[in-house]
Amino acid sequence: MKYLNVAEKNDAAKNIAALLSRGASQRREGYSPYNKIYEFDYNLRGQQVKMVMTSVSGHLLNFEFLPSFRGWHSCNPEQLFDAPVRKGCTESAEKIKRTLEREIRGCGALVIWTDCDREGENIGFEIIEVCRAVKPQIKVLRAKFSEITAASIKRAVDNLAAPDELQSEAVNVRSELDLRIGAAFTRFQTLRLQNVFPDKISNSLVSYGSCQIPTLGFVAQRYKEIENFIPQAFWKIKLNHTIGELTVEFNWSRNRLFDKQCCEAYLMLCQSEQMAKIVSVTNKPKSKWRPTPLDTVELEKLGSRKLKLNAKTTMTIAEKLYTQGIISYPRTETNMFTHDMKLAPLVEMQAGHPEWGDFAQKVMQWGPNPRNGKKSDQAHPPIHPTKFVTNLSGDEKRVYELVVRHFLACVSKDAVGAETIVNAVLAEEEFTASGLCILERNYLEVYPYDRWNSKEIHAYQMGNTFEPTELGLHEGSTTAPNMLTEADLIALMEKHGIGTDATHAEHINTIKERGYIGEADRGFLVPGTLGMGLVEGYESMELPLAQPKLRAGLEEDLKRICEGQRDPKVVLQEQIQKYKEAYRVITEKARALDQAMGQRLQQTPRDAPTNQFNAAGPSSIQEVCKCPKCSQMMCLKTKKDNSGYYLGCLGFPDCKNSVWFDDNIKEASATTEVCSKCATGNKKLEVKFKFSRYYAMLNHTNNESYKTCIVCDDKFRETLGINDSNVKQFRSNGIRTDVTIPPRGTAPPNNAPRPPSQNPFSDRSSGRGSGTSTTSRSWGSNNDDDDDRRGGGGGAISTGRTNNTNSAAGGSSGWGSGNLSFNNSSTTTTTNTWNRNPAPPAPARGPPRSGNDDEVLCRCNLPAKSLTVRKDGPNQGRPFYACPKPKDEQCQFFQWADEPPPSAPGTGGGAGGGYSWGQKRPAPPSDGGGFAGGSRAAGGSSDWGRSSGAGSSGSRGGSKTGDRARATRKCGFCRQEGHTKAKCPQRENADY
To answer: Given 3.40.50.720, 3.40.50.2000, 3.20.20.70, 1.10.460.10, which CATH number is that of 172-228+482-601?
Structure first.
């Protein structure tokens, strides 16, 4: 049996394969040059199996809007809260997806080796989705591990389990919500502010993220505290005692006073006595605690404070060390080692290091004794070294050293010292001094990131008196708090539940890239002009968007989803409604945002366009019916110039089906009323016409509005000229396409299928003469030109049936080497005539089809070329077929690709018509021997798609002007034939 194993990154796949195969794996290439494939044999649960190990590169699929919502001006941003989304493969991951699809075909099971956290679980289910699309019944297993070491990987293989779908669902909720919120607010802010401040923000992206903006809020809040800070003067009494070179400073118990005169009075009181008296001396042991085991947040903070690396850089390096098997998984919330975890081998591993090897040996003598914290994510242990290495350099070496030193420190002993506290009294005012003596440094020997300094003090005894060396008034003032560092910001994000340990660094890096915050001297974070303008704008609108409350609530809900306590769909809808309400407020009070941004940019805001987003459509998606072409929803939309309405498919541009409404519709809206006749969930439309005559044409007495279902209401579609195929799905019309067309001038084989004896889909119609029943059948190749119309029957077979009796002239009946023409007469006989010198067939009215059902042929009998309308207008982007020849040689063939080809009128008309069995046709005319629109000569081919009338002939001689009638134009006002809109007699009475 073969197993497909998939890791989250190529390095992880490479190292896991090396450990499982003991270095014997064979490498080969996948479609992606960055994701290799490793093969090896393995004994799994006593069975010899073939292992195939490969990888992805993070997320394989991402949430995305349907194409019709991706453009910045494609819709009102508020629609994005409800717009349909799907998970699609990114372009960069397409080759990886192809590799998985290829490899899974030959495998009996799939093993997920992605990182064991929420995000990794979600990536695992993306891999499962891709593989099950190829092999639906594939068995799926999950390998759970926290470090890439031989023991850990062996343990993971021996304990394969099922993947955790709840964790994946939590990530799906968060991802979809981030997409909707980010897209809606970002489009609104960017488009509005670009219009209001074209000189300052014309090319800037003013993005919004539900984690990024609260993170910005912390920085902006601290900056405003500093900006609004007013220093206050204070005074305090200073008392020093010097013996030799050692000066001991005593602190006043009242600390400081903000009243100078009051402080001076206390000083005068103290100065009235010359000697201070020691009233107590306390000696007590003092310990400095060793650190707790290292989690992600602490690693990021230490990297920022001690190594001067930003959080993103620190985590990138840590992940690289993890995939190389040097440290354990670096994304963990756990800061406690379990009792069953064997720490001694990890300490002993470091005993040979030249810098901290001696201390590791001391720890072995004491016995590893971690000072555990109180957090555990029940998935991963704290970050610790898993391999002894000495070949690292640069920042990788510094991060590895931090992890090792922190680990050794946390499993060693606290530093021990002795503290002396002395209390003295002078004129009834109390003063205190302290000293420290370090007795055992212990963990401080290996951990340079902490400091604990000795502080000497005189050997005071209770009852001693001394004269102060210095006694005076010290003046100072309060100072503003420092600006936040990255470590401070991470601590605030963790405290308020913004993001997770895995995403803190990403959020901070994002707002840096957006220019919302910057880094000043000594690593302090400062908000940018744009960032401050946004935060102050939200505050002026009384919106909590820059505060942590909204996002913190989501993080709590996500944890409950993982624990099975909350329904993902309910959480998603609740959160969408909260942010939808916030969006409504920001659109109503947008002027406050303009004013706040204008103050920061020092520019007067312009007036924003009043209908900036109204032109993009209503605030909500107005679904009407399902698209018959792709099964997505058809929605009511407003034209770009706001001049009318149309139905557009949500699958655009993949599906270009649309219905463009007449400009005479003044207003249109989709109601919530479901059509009971359809029973398919179609919503009714409510329209208002510009002219009252349209209500009369629809037999509607109410001249204010007309409510209808566009799918059911044939009269409505006919009145507005709407093509049925754009809103209705048709069943097969009975046209046969499974017959091989015989070449012209040759007889078909004996076993060739014959046309059916009668058309089960057509009504019988009486022909000329009593009891005459006539049915047409046409087949043959469709090479048409004018010679056929001049010469007679051409290459078509036209059958007339009379009283179910047929006789053949000259003994010929049926198939021959020439063309066959059965001509109808008033008698009860039918004559079969062979024409051995056939003329070319006449052109057909609709586009012929080749033997391949999907191939359209032009009038030159060549496969038509597929093109797309590029000219601006209602048909822009619409596909059509045209002759493939050079422009000066084309046959002028044209057919829309998104409409079914026209049926029988002319499909078999003229000579050589294509198959048209089973199509409903009117009866032939009762006068004359020929068919309506027939050929000019006797024996012309049938064309029963038209009734006799203008442009058609009822005689055997046929029409002198061509083989078919032109459709008469109708007036745009009264819809009557015979004149145009410009010459309509009712024009002057039109109610504009």
So the answer is: 1.10.460.10
